[in-house]
Known about the structure:
Structural class: mainly alpha
Number of helices: 2
Number of strands: 0
Amino acid sequence: xxxxxxxxxxxxxxxxxxxxxxxxxxxxxxxxxxxxxxxxxxxxxxxxxxxxxxxxxxxxxxxxxxxxxxxxxxxx
Length: 76
């Protein structure tokens, strides 16, 4: 679908930044809407969609459990 969206989950991307998540959300909304940059009358809804997708992506990445991924050693 969007070849420019990279995998953000560990271990592929050890630490996805907020900028990484936002860039992926922007690419997704651009692809779905068919607009690289929306007209002024569509700007608000376009920006809201990017925000919503970025928030959902951050929740997804925070909630994923990757089997076999190294866990931090317990601190005593």
